[in-house]
Design brief:
mainly alpha, two-stranded antiparallel sheet, 4 helices, elongated, transmembrane, plasmid, transmembrane helix, membrane
Length: 119
């Protein structure tokens, strides 16, 4: 089995959660900036600026998390596939984390379509 650094492995396993956390910060940062600067009435492409920016951030986060999920699903390395193989656990954990993050990202982005930014 190949040796990799703990930090790289752990960061890879947590990458979906990091994507979700960045999206969460972006959503609240965008709303905070729009409300602080009083840009609530500004439109971009015919829609409120908050909706456009949050939907863009949500789309990017969904694509990144889907990429992590795809890498976890199709990144199976050849070789032994026993329960003692830590790569199997790493792929399983990363895939489940990515699936959960996809749901969380959608859940965070949904209010942008339903509620005004400063309402």
């Amino acid at each position: 089995m190949e040796k990799t650094a703990f930090t790289a492995t752990f960061t890879g396993m947590m990458s979906a959660f990091l994507i979700w956390a960045a999206h969460f910060a972006a959503v609240y940062g965008i709303n905070g900036l729009i409300c602080a600067r009083q840009w609530d009435g500004v439109e971009l492409y015919g829609h409120p600026v908050a909706v456009v920016l949050i939907l863009g951030a949500t789309a990017v986060a969904l694509l990144l998390a889907a990429g992590v999920l795809a890498a976890a699903l199709w990144g199976a390395a050849p070789g032994r596939r026993t329960s003692e193989d830590p790569r199997r656990f790493i792929r399983l954990f990363t895939g489940l984390a990515a699936a959960g993050s996809l749901v969380a990202i959608l859940w965070n982005g949904l209010p942008a379509l339903q509620v005004p930014a400063c309402g």
